């Protein structure tokens, strides 16, 4: 299927590893210019080396920007630098930030605030300037990689799930507000995906349930009718489709990717 993404400029937050890195690979394969934003310069350089090997000839289409997108000014500085390098942003993929998993009995208002800073505002701080520029140009696409914790509560992930739920509402609301301006915005909600972040979550769940990480993973997998967890590449393929003209009438959608672990009508 021709996605018509060649020469598009894609900015990916959290692009140095996990789902963000997997998205970068597919966009590069589609002929895009890709700006990766992450806090860690070391992982950014490692990501570029990996991508250059996986997608031969892509090195000149990859730009790296180290920024803490929990800070609005840092996010906008990275955006300005990316646009100076490759031009206006055609596609924004948000995959940065993750709230720490915390047992319910240990939660406090501070944990909820930290979760909102870690996940909600890392997205908002980049969405806000990007969507306004896209609206002014009359074109653009945003895909938010959120997470199923905003729809299906998990007791060790209440604070983070609350941030995810807020992102889902923001996605739907901005889609309605910016649809008349030619901008599409959607969200993808993966459940357990085989990334380093998943391993960190397994440890918290194991401590909470007083079982081994291996047992947590086994139980998590058993809850999925497909009998396995998602790979980052599978999530990336969905993100790239939503970013393409093939999804030109899809906006305001919140797409759950959980292998039918929680099937529902709405």
Number of E strands: 7
C-alpha geometry:
globular
Low-confidence stretches: none
Distance between the termini: 29 Å
Major pleated sheet? 7 strands, parallel
What is the percentage of strand-forming residues?
Answer: 5-15%
Which value, in Å, is the CA radius of gyration?
Answer: 18 Å
* Tally of helical runs: 8
Helical content stands at: 40-55%
Helix-strand topology string? EHEHEHEHEHEHHHE
Q: On the 0-100 scale, what is the average pLDDT?
A: 90
Structural account:
The chain is α/β, with parallel strands linked by helices and about 270 residues long. It is about 50% helix and about 15% strand. It contains eight helices and seven strands; from the N terminus they run βαβαβαβαβαβαααβ. It has helices at about 20-30, 40-55, 70-85, 110-135, 160-180, 195-210, 215-220, 230-245, and strands spanning about 10-15, 35-40, 60-65, 90-95, 140-145, 185-190, 255. Strands 3-2-1-4-5-6-7 form a seven-stranded parallel beta sheet, with helices on both faces. The longest helix is centred in the middle third of the chain and has 29 residues, at about 110-135. The radius of gyration is 18 Å and the shape is globular. The protein starts with 8 loop residues before the first strand and ends in a 9-residue tail after the last strand.
């Amino acid at each position: 299927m021709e996605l018509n993404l060649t020469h598009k400029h894609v900015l990916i937050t959290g692009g140095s590893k996990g789902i963000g890195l997997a998205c970068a690979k597919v966009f590069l394969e589609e002929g895009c210019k890709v700006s990766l934003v992450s806090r860690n310069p070391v992982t950014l350089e490692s990501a570029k080396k990996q991508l250059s090997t996986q997608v031969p000839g892509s090195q000149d289409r990859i730009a790296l920007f180290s920024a803490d997108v929990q800070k609005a000014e840092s996010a906008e500085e990275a955006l300005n630098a990316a646009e100076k390098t490759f031009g206006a942003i055609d596609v924004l993929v948000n995959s940065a930030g993750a709230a720490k998993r915390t047992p319910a009995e240990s939660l406090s208002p501070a944990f909820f605030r930290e979760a909102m800073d870690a996940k909600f505002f890392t997205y908002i701080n980049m969405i806000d300037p990007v969507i306004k520029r896209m609206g002014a140009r009359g074109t653009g696409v945003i895909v938010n990689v959120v997470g199923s914790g905003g729809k299906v509560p998990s007791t060790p992930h209440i604070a983070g799930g609350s941030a995810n739920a807020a992102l889902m509402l923001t996605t739907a609301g901005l889609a309605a507000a910016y649809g008349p301006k030619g901008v599409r915005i959607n969200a993808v909600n993966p459940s357990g995906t085989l990334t380093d972040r998943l391993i960190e979550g397994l440890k918290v769940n194991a401590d909470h349930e007083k079982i081994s990480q291996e047992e947590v993973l086994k139980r998590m997998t058993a809850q999925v009718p497909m009998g396995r967890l998602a790979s980052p590449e599978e999530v990336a393929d969905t993100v790239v489709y939503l970013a393409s003209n093939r999804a030109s009438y899809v906006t305001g959608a919140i797409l759950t990717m959980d292998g039918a672990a929680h099937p529902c009508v709405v």
